[in-house]
Amino acid sequence: MVHEQIRDAGAARRANVLVVNDDGIAAAGLAKVVEALDRTGRLDVYVVAPDKEMSATSHSISIHNAVSATPCVVPGATRAFSSSGTPADCTMLGLSVLYRSKRFDYIVSGINRGDNLGLHVVYSGTVAGAREGAMRTGAVGVAVSLDSYSRTADYSEAARLTAELVTSIHDAPGLTETLRGCVLNVNVPNLPRERIEGVKLTTPGLSCTQSEWVRVPGTRDAEDDETRGPDSDSDGDWRHDGAFADGVEEIPIPDAGEGLAGEDDAWESGTRWFRNKPGPAREDNREGFDKRAMRDGFVSVSVLASGYATVAFDRTKIPNESAGLGETLARALVPDGVPAIRSAA
Predict the structure, then answer these.
(1) Which range is least confidently modeled, 43-52, 68-77, 336-345?
(2) Residue closest to 138 by CA, chosen among 179, 171, 174, 97
(3) pTM, to two decimals
């Protein structure tokens, strides 16, 4: 997508900021960042956020059902709406419908409860909310996450840093233009200000929480005799011991064997229900990567492209059109036997 080039008026012009998140309109992180942005006295803040928890929805959008938008009050925001949509929906709705007369220079998403490091960037609704605005309008996306899953975490320092980052970008000549269409993925240690070592520009690594599927009992509907999955009144929240906060019973799945396909009754009628809970974390503590910076007490900032990253290859190595697909890929991507693609691993 080609973005319209807008001249940067810098600090002389007030800027509009659209704030979205994936933790929901009532999240403490959203309230704190809106207040901090408003306190700068130079930013006009508008909000569209999900009306419920939408974590790990990635960049999904709603095309099969209607999406609501309900006016609400968020202290510090010029206008605010809650929406039944995903984080990406919220950004789209804000830009295209609710605030369509506004030009947004910055899309701030967060502050997320929990980090968005490494491969979590792929699953993150927080990152997607910022990315949607960056790729559609050429705004600067800023996705901010705090390294704490506590419901009582203090977002004050992360909010202050976010406001400082946005105003710094706005003040620096040419920086807003340079970053248009990009997303700054910001991860803040859960530390008091005096213990944060500084800020590091990083590369997203391979850190990721592994999935740990558990089987859960279904409930039978007396009217239609269908089995349904257990409902949750806590948005699928987890206690620190890894159990469901809503007390749903877990049925262990054996670590060894063929899985459910190996059970004698595997092909009998009936629906099985499962839930995905956090398992062990895979750490990537290499120097220069996001997880390492956070481990060492630094704020991690990774600059992400809003579109797809493409792989460069030598077009002169591509054989004629009659060659098979395998030969074409091999010649283009493994010229002279040397792989042209280098993964982060």
Answers:
(1) 336-345
(2) 179
(3) 0.81
